[in-house]
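Lab notebook, design round three. We kept the backbone fixed and only want residue identities now. Task for the bench partner: fill in a sequence for the structure below.
Input structure tokens:
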């Protein structure tokens, strides 16, 4: 995997100059309804951790954004604003934005379970993200994992349902796009199965012309999918361009790797067939 290794080395150096610790990784907007990410989160009278606590709320508490304040706090390596929020029968107070979920949604199979996603910490441009699983305002599982490098790189979560698999309730994707040549992106894939969350695979999508590396899962519900199987297709290669300036033919591709591996889910892990 010489090409892939060189890509990862290159992006580790090239992305460092793009970090800006003063910017927020994400923000919330007036009238937006969001949900508390942490458990036992303090709602304050003012925009300070030393201010009086109005209420202590549990994970999944619904809050409405009333105001994004001008006060920021840096905690766990990243800065977020304080927000004035409305909660629990018109109560009002302030909460630090890092305690609110960036995204929240229910399991497509059993809606009693809710997934909350957000940033946990940031260390020298490397973000650690978290998914917390809630049932009836009780945290039943918490999973932390490293995202793709880049302090301001947006990470988005999507629930794709079962994708045609009978023994998986939800397939969750954390997606982050490459933002410039040599930058790394891709997807981190999770399965929700048997009321437990599993971190399955990081799929890379890296390009630094003319070389590239791409991974993709193909599920039974996809056009190329097969019943009961999870296909992992991996490509690593290089585009070969003609040295003739008058040649208009498209480049050829030289593959270091171009293969598909067949897996099945045994309820706890992927098993190669």
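Proposed sequence:
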């Amino acid at each position: 995997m010489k090409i892939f290794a060189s890509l990862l080395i290159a992006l580790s150096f090239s992305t460092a100059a793009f970090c800006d610790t003063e910017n927020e990784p994400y923000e919330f907007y007036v009238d937006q309804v969001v949900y508390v990410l942490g458990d036992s989160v303090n709602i304050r009278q003012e925009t300070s951790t030393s201010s009086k606590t109005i209420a202590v709320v549990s994970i999944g508490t619904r809050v409405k954004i009333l105001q994004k304040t001008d006060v920021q706090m840096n905690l766990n390596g990243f800065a977020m604003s304080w927000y004035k929020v409305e909660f629990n029968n018109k109560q009002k107070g302030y909460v630090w934005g890092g305690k609110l979920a960036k995204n929240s949604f229910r399991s497509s199979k059993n809606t009693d379970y809710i997934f909350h996603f957000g940033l946990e910490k940031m260390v020298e441009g490397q973000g650690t993200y978290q998914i917390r699983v809630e049932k009836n305002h009780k945290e039943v599982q918490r999973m932390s994992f490293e995202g793709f490098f880049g302090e301001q790189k947006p990470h988005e979560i999507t629930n794709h349902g079962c994708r045609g698999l009978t023994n998986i309730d939800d397939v969750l994707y954390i997606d982050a796009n490459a933002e410039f040549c040599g930058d790394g992106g891709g997807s981190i894939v999770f399965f929700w199965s048997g009321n437990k969350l599993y971190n399955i695979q990081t799929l890379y999508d890296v390009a630094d012309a003319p070389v590239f590396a791409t991974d993709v899962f193909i599920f039974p519900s996809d056009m190329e999918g097969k019943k009961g199987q999870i296909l992992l297709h991996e490509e690593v290669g290089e585009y070969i361009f003609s040295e003739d300036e008058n040649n208009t033919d498209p480049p050829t591709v030289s593959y270091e790797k171009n293969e598909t591996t067949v897996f099945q889910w045994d309820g706890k892990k992927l098993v190669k067939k």
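Keep this in mind before ordering anything: Residues 2-16+129-146+153-272 form one domain.
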